[in-house]
Specification:
12 helices
Amino acid sequence: MLWFFGWRNLVRTALLSVAVYVAYEWLGWEFIHVPFLPVATIGTAVAFYVGFKNNSSYERLWEARRIWGAIVNQSRSFATQVLETVRRPGGEGRDDGLEEIRADLIYRHIAWVNILRLQLRKPIPWIYGERGDADHIRVVSRLRDNKTFDEEVREVLLKFTSEREYEELRGESNIANHLVRRQAQKVTELKRAGFLDEYEHSDMMRQVLDSFNNQGAAERIKSFPFPRQYGLFSTIFVNIFIILLPFALIREFGALGKSVSWLMIPFSLLISWIFYTMEQVGQSSENPFDNGLNDVPMTAICRNIEIDLREMAGEKDLPDRLQPVDSVLL
């Protein structure tokens, strides 16, 4: 994994370092050296700048994970309210039809979390541009299904809702939004039919509307990418420093004698790798719904929600929890 992410930079730096070493020691081009102090100053500034970027990227990643943690908690709370409060009008003991009513609400919620996952992972060209070629995306692209967004939506809706609901929602621009609205309509219908009293309806509606809050928080991260003035210039500054580094180190090692001046090459590789890796860490974390290596594992979270809710409803034929593939959990 380290080689996959670092080999381009290592090859580039090795070629540059060898060229500087040959020019300085073998060709006698001593004029190519750069004073070490200015380059060291640039390196210090770059380290602070990259550190700020990485800290901001981690905050976005952690906020996204907290949002999905809230979705997990909300899902369990909603299912508990459905199972414990939806009952026959007047408290009648008959349970015929209740299981289907409760299952309809629970399965629609499972559909919502999965549709939200698909919408968050849908690339936005005007934001991400060529990011499909980024290393942290390419390294997991072979682990993902090659289905289109519409195919995955069809699969989810037909599995957790009805064919009629799929036909009604398939053309909407924000299907997850309409699923929550339908859930609110169903809860209100149950209240009017006497399956819920006013207080139970109010509490359940609060749970339903929390879906809008969690969805909006996730969409805010998705639709507002990491500011490019930080992401772009961080990359530029790191590359400037890596290019200048061999020209600054050659004289420092050359002063120790020709027998050890070649050590400039491995030290240039080591220092450039550290700075380049710090830059990559921030880049691969700045958009947590980027279909990349460091994404929030939404597929696994959605599967866990499905298992928990169906198990709470008394079902026994449950899917398996997702396991990491090549140390990657999608």
